[in-house]
Amino acid sequence: VFKYVTRAPDIAVYAVMVAYKEDPSPFKLNLGIGVYRTEEGKPLLLNVVRKAEKLLVNELSANKEYLPITGIAEFNKLSAKLIFGADSSAIKENRVTTVQCLSGSGSLRIGADFLAKHYHQLTVYMSQPTYANHPNFFVAAGITVKTYRYYDPTTCGLDFQGLLEDLGAASSGAIVLLQTCGHNPTGVDPSLEQWEQIRKLMRLNGLLPFFDCAYQGFVSASPDADAQPVRMFVADGGECLTALSYSKIMGLYAERVGALSIVCKTADVASRVESQLKLIIRPMYSNPPIHGASIVTAILKDREMYGEWITELKAMTDRITSMRQQLYNALHDRAIPGDWSHITKQVGMFSLTGLNAEQVAFLTKEYHIYMSSDGRINLSGLSTKTVPYLADAIHAAVTL
Ligand code: PMP
């Protein structure tokens, strides 16, 4: 009965991973991955996560019963506090509903499905470019995807004028997907002044913000500072949605732990929204897994462990910043044509280097360096040892 099923195309980022794995070269370098790596190129399990797991072992093994459809209530409260702030009036007024979801992806998908069922304007605008999976969440929910200008390839920075023009021309009421910080794939974030202009324009045109918070804390090591764009929108009393992921910020990728929050105008609306979210989640996976969310809860609720998390978060962000500086210095030292200052101006885990598909193909073929064809690199895939190798390879690629 399945003989007419056609083969689906490979998913680009996984294809790069497979090619890297199969490459026998001892010099191979994987900059295409979307996960944090240590200076030794190893995955990082945070000490504070290990500690939380130890603490939880007895409690967890004693009880593996189903969670409620919306997950662990305390986890949801702490997640809302993490994004909106400890003194958020929206939280105090019970205008926020937060549900535990399967990481950032699950939160985006549940949010998209909720909007498809209960919102009147089924068009979403997302940045050009954006995380490759973003359109899929909304297309799957039956929402039309459009783009707004974001990245200026001539400066490798923000096309702020283009962004304002496109959002200014967006149909009234449209959904706008915004990345809170550490924009994937560009590493380009608006300044807080620019965010304020975006907020004013969006509120004026009645556009609905949906924030993807996959890197909250991964830019400045302060979850509060990184959440400022969201908090500016919440402070004006209007609605918004947020999809929070703990994959990167706590290194919990495979635990699939995240939260969808919907900020409403009143407590009554928020409670009705939550009742509808349950109807969306129930036929999809019934209820979320317990392990990852228990770890997050243990860390966020304990002052000491929270502090340890921030220290480890800072070690990750410091290493990334140092890699940016070292790469810039190495490119500068080689007097490679072009202005490479965007490498240090961009923030978060990624940099859109400005290398084109042909140059990327050259780096892979001649130097065994792997990255997506748009020239995006994961800075944490680098180390002090490998920076000179990459700089030499880029030198060769751009002076071909
Ligand atoms: N949003 C962005 C911008 C991302 O980069 C990612 C992961 N690469 C996600 C969402 C989803 O990640 P997860 O489902 O692991 O939270």
UniProtKB/TrEMBL annotation:
Record flagged with keyword Ribonucleoprotein: no
Keywords of the record: Aminotransferase, Pyridoxal phosphate, Transferase
Gene3D superfamilies hit by this protein: Aspartate Aminotransferase, domain 1 (3.90.1150.10), Type I PLP-dependent aspartate aminotransferase-like (Major domain) (3.40.640.10)
Keyword Transferase set for record: yes
GO cellular component, one term: mitochondrion
Cofactor(s) in the UniProt record: pyridoxal 5'-phosphate
GO MF: L-aspartate:2-oxoglutarate aminotransferase activity; pyridoxal phosphate binding
Coiled-coil parts of chain: none
EC number: 2.6.1.1
Stretches assigned to the Aminotransferase class I/classII large domain: 28-394
Catalytic function, reaction form: L-aspartate + 2-oxoglutarate = oxaloacetate + L-glutamate
Any single GO BP term: amino acid metabolic process
Subunit structure, as described in the record: Homodimer.
Further information: In eukaryotes there are cytoplasmic, mitochondrial and chloroplastic isozymes.
Similarity annotation: Belongs to the class-I pyridoxal-phosphate-dependent aminotransferase family.
NCBIfam families recorded: PRK09257.1
Annotated protein name in UniProt: Aspartate aminotransferase
Originating species: Dipteronia sinensis
